Amino acid sequence: MLIVGCGRIAGGYDDPAGPDVKTHAKAFLRHGGFRLAACVDPDRAKADEFAALWGVGRSHGALEEAKGRYDVVSLCSPPEAHAEQLAALLDWDIGLVFCEKPLTDDLEQSRRLVEAYRAAGRLLVVNYQRRWEPIARQVRREIAEGRWGRLLSAHGIYTKGVLANGSHLVDLLQFLIGPLTPERVFEARADYSDADPTLAALLRDGDWAPIVLSIGDTRHFTIFELDLLFEQGRVTFGDSGWTASRRRVIDDPRYANYRILEPLVPQPSGMAQAMTAAIASLHDSLTSGEEPPSTGATALAAQEICYRLLQLKGSTP
Is residue 269 exposed (0-12), middle (13-18) or buried (19+ Cβ within 10 Å)? Predict the structure, then answer.
């Protein structure tokens, strides 16, 4: 497989000898079903260092230099480079592309590329990691089976741009409860980028339940949390998704004829296994045709929602 872009998510967040798996290089190596054949970075010295650290067969300074047959191409490059690279890879002999989010930094380009990959029969996977997180996947199944009842409301809070981090929240919501309809933007805060403001907003699900997005300020601290209130209980993802709690409705032991939620006992989620699960999913897609949970189409759906929020704010890029 080929890694394009040799920065933090490619391998920089990890130590080859450490226990954690947070990056593409380490997850592919840990899986055992892939070989790191080549890497690319416009900073050739950086590519060489990356290759030496992770045991990559070849290093290159430009994408075209690495052209060849690969089962997987991992795009870990900056978002502004994705569109050109994804278009170029359509002509390569590869099994699938595993692209870091966002798909591209332009909605129309994302639309064209998703359609081009669909028309070519080429699998395009986007790394919205929470779709591989075990607790999120279990909660999704429970919701689909009706075990939580109807959604009453949801509340998310985030920082660092509606496209950069807000898209993770939108994507997780759509993964769990289905399509969303943006209704109103209350406030915008440029805590990350003037071109990507952090937006407080109201959205609705298919049954018109209210979903509120609140915002913090990443210049002070970052936050990413999601709270879902159902007829039969409450599901909360906290600590940037690294903890989760599921609280069922019980009889109030203090007051007769009242119903309350179970005590809050946060547990570690499966975020530590999300990257490992993503790479295992890629292997399953290549060997057995299994559909991955996060594709170009699902990433585009999240991007569409975020751009609609920007339109409501009046700040479409």
Answer: buried
Decide if 73 contacts 99 (C-beta within 8 A): no
C-beta separation of 188 from 198 below 8 A: yes
Q: Measured between alpha carbons, how far is 208 from 226 in angstroms, rounded to an integer?
A: 18
What local confidence, expressed as pLDDT, does residue 315 receive? Answer: 54
Provide the β-strand partners of residue 125.
98, 295
Beta strands at 69-75 and 2-4: parallel, antiparallel or unpaired: parallel
Q: Distance (Å, rounded) from C-alpha 48 to C-alpha 39? A: 9
Domain boundaries, the chain: 2-126, 131-270+301-313
- The string of pLDDT tens digits covering residues 143-199 is 999 999 999 999 999 999 999 999 999 999 999 999 999 999 999 999 999 999 999
- Tell which residue, 112, 95, 59, 305, has the closest CA to residue 204: 305
145, HSE (Cβ side, Cα atoms, 13 Å) = 7
Residue with tokens 């509340």: 155
Q: 301: which 2 tokens?
A: 């759906």
- C-alpha distances in Å from residue 121, one per residue of 57, 62, 96, 97, 275: 29, 26, 10, 12, 25
How many Cα atoms within 13 Å fall on the side-chain side of residue 20?
A: 10
- CA count, 13 A, side-chain hemisphere, 202: 7
CA 3 to chain centre: 18
Which DSSP string do the residues of 269-307 spell out, in sequence order?
-SGGGHHHHHHHHHHHHHHH-PPPSSBHHHHHHHHHHHH
CATH superfamily of 2-126: NAD(P)-binding Rossmann-like Domain (3.40.50.720)
Task: Of 270, 309, 298, 316, give the one whose Cα is nearest residue 99.
Answer: 298
The pLDDT score that the predictor gives to residue 251 is: 96
Architecture of domain 131-270+301-313: 2-Layer Sandwich (3.30)
What's the one-letter identity of residue 309? L
Question: Distance between CA atoms of 257 and 114, rounded to whole angstroms?
Answer: 53
Rounded to whole angstroms, how far apart are CA atoms 171 and 304?
11
